[in-house]
Specification:
330 residues; 14 helices; globular; single chain; alpha+beta; 10-stranded antiparallel beta barrel
Length: 330
């Protein structure tokens, strides 16, 4: 690490930036599409891993790039496990219907649906977050995600049960508790992020957004989205670092309109430029303020943590990442 990088890392203000070249991204996308078509879709996991590596390497914190270490093989194995699970489920339902009765097929179907809602879905979400963080790094140190399974599954199950019973008035509380659990589980080295906000303030922000969105027939939605993001960032901290999010509703609206109109008009070819514009504005809107030596944090006990991260990350089931990609729209 050079003296220049060291002095930059010891600043009391930190900035995120994007060093992305749309033409390179376009070439990468076209190459991925071509190889995916030629291999009848089998190349898709490798295409996703390649795209993720490129995007992460374009993001800078005080000039130092992030890195993504996930491989296409890991994702391929994950997709394969999801496919096998789906085949097994279909065979059980069909066998029950054929050899017993159509009515009897309801029992395994309901059982699998409940298993998916109360166990597999939260496990997939937690596993996907863990997978992505452990395969992401900054200054050669991997991120991590540590949340007790009991807290994770209890928060999820309680929300799933209480939301319909309260006519979804519990939804803001569910989102609040899940957001706090997720942010508090984020790690970089031995440092932990904290989300400190009151449920009352979250409810106030949530219903204000709902009210204005309804009164404006949905036109307020970009501002509502930004308001929630600003609330979450403003109540998140990392040791002495406080976060601030300065994106405006108007900027958010412009990004959404670009995706809505520029992509269809250009037949998708404008995607790298639209993606860069959106990411650049979002990264510039994130401000980290506080006195902390990030370089020292990155260097302390480096060998121990790196070895630990390497051994830990190898045990993370890639099925979670693959399953999460089924609903990923990016």
């Amino acid at each position: 690490m050079s003296n220049l990088e060291l002095s930059q890392t010891k600043q009391t203000r930190f900035h995120l930036s994007l060093d992305m070249h749309p033409l390179e991204m376009l070439y990468l996308i076209l190459e991925n599409i071509g190889l995916t078509i030629l291999t009848l879709g089998l190349y898709y996991p490798w295409a996703y891993a390649k795209k993720s590596r490129y995007l992460w390497n374009c993001i800078r914190l005080n000039g130092s790039a992030f890195s993504y270490h996930g491989t296409g093989y890991e994702l391929f194995v994950g997709y394969l496990k999801v496919f096998i699970f789906y085949i097994c489920f279909s065979l059980v339902v069909q066998a029950t219907t054929h050899f017993i009765s159509p009515q009897a097929a309801i029992i395994p179907t309901v059982a699998v649906i409940l298993l998916f809602i109360f166990y597999l879905l939260p496990a997939i979400i937690k596993g996907a977050i863990t997978f992505r963080l452990r395969r992401s790094s900054w200054l050669s140190n991997h991120f991590d995600f540590k949340v007790a399974n009991s807290n994770w599954f209890w928060t999820w199950a309680k929300g799933i049960v209480l939301m319909p019973l309260t006519l979804y008035l519990y939804y803001p509380a569910f989102e609040f508790h899940f957001t706090r659990l997720t942010i508090n589980g984020l790690r970089y080295k031995n440092e932990q992020l904290y989300f400190q906000a009151s449920l009352r303030d979250f409810y106030r922000m949530f219903f204000k957004n709902i009210l204005f969105t309804l009164l404006t027939c949905g036109l307020y939605l970009p501002w509502a989205t930004v308001n929630k993001q600003q609330f979450i960032w403003a109540h998140t901290s990392l040791r002495e670092i406080k976060f601030n999010y300065t994106m405006t509703g108007y900027q958010s609206l412009k990004i959404h309109l670009l995706y809505l109109f520029a992509l269809p008009i250009s037949l998708g070819l404008a995607y790298p430029w639209v993606l860069k514009y959106g990411l650049e504005n979002k990264l510039k809107a994130i401000h980290l303020n506080g006195e902390i030596d990030l370089f020292a944090i990155a260097q302390e006990n480096s060998s121990t943590t790196t070895n630990g991260a390497s051994s830990e990350k190898s045990t993370t089931p890639s099925i979670f990442e693959a399953a999460s990609r089924l609903s990923d729209t990016n």
